């Protein structure tokens, strides 16, 4: 697979970029070089490599969920600048 001038122009259009002819040529070359480098991965023998999601052993460091009593509505609203009908009252963001 290779990147064409049309591909560069399409991506530039999507990104709302205006590129000069020199920049289009430069990006075309750079993107093709990246793809050529990535194609080297196809040369690797990976049949005996076990799939992993992380290179290091990862374990959950979070505590177990435990059911416990929640904060009461009155306590939660105690420091609220304004409340109305048992809820936080905030300025409207839509008109």
UniProtKB/TrEMBL annotation:
Molecular-function GO terms, alphabetical: ATP binding; glutaminyl-tRNA synthase (glutamine-hydrolyzing) activity; transferase activity
Annotated spans, Disordered: 72-95
E.C. code: 6.3.5.-
Pfam families reported in the protein's UniProt record: GatC
Protein name: Aspartyl/glutamyl-tRNA(Asn/Gln) amidotransferase subunit C
Family: Belongs to the GatC family.
Keyword ATP-binding: yes
Keyword Translocase attributed: no
A GO biological-process term: glutaminyl-tRNAGln biosynthesis via transamidation
Job description of the protein: Allows the formation of correctly charged Asn-tRNA(Asn) or Gln-tRNA(Gln) through the transamidation of misacylated Asp-tRNA(Asn) or Glu-tRNA(Gln) in organisms which lack either or both of asparaginyl-tRNA or glutaminyl-tRNA synthetases. The reaction takes place in the presence of glutamine and ATP through an activated phospho-Asp-tRNA(Asn) or phospho-Glu-tRNA(Gln).
Domain of life where this protein originates: Bacteria
Catalytic activity: L-aspartyl-tRNA(Asn) + L-glutamine + ATP + H2O = L-asparaginyl-tRNA(Asn) + L-glutamate + ADP + phosphate + 2 H(+); L-glutamyl-tRNA(Gln) + L-glutamine + ATP + H2O = L-glutaminyl-tRNA(Gln) + L-glutamate + ADP + phosphate + H(+)
Organism: Paenibacillus sacheonensis
